[in-house]
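Workshop exercise sheet. Pairs work together: one partner reads the sequence aloud, the other fills in the structure field after running the prediction. Swap roles for the next sheet.
Pair: D.N. / O.F.
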Amino acid sequence: MSRTFLYARCSTASQFTENQTQEVRAAGFDVQASRTIEETISGSIAAKERPGFQKLLDRMESGDVLIVTKLDRLGRNAMDVRQTVEHLAHNGIRVHCLALGGVDLTSPAGKMTMQVLGAVAEFERDLLIERTQQGLIRAKAEGKKLGRPEAIDTTALVQKSKAKGMTQAEVAADLALGIATVKRHWNKV
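Structure field:
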């Protein structure tokens, strides 16, 4: 008999997985708390490198079902998501994505959906790279300086102001620096 698992992930501690859990319940799935893995970790980290997802893989067996609310819960990289789904399918685990109408991503229709989504993601990434390159070329042609701004020699500026007899508070106000920054550079030589 197949068991149903839920993988709920959010990226930051200020986010919560409760909405994902409620969405799965609303879709009619009854996932036991012991089969729910909630994790706070960036989607840019490969699924196989996430501690919570590893724990999930250790628990699941052939015939089980994994539910995610959206594909980006598995990862943000289309290649990683595809490899994760393929790995699960190879182990006999079906993957259902609610945002895609609950389609089983390991079924023929699900595989086709994954390929289309992967192609779209690759196309969007290529367009982004192309737009970025065009923007850099345009900025250079307009004479804009690219990269980080040049660092100013804060110590020298503070020392010059100190030599003029200014107080630390006056130097901070004059140079638009924090008082802690002025204090840090005050006695440097």
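Discussion prompt: The radius of gyration is 26 Å. What would you look at next?
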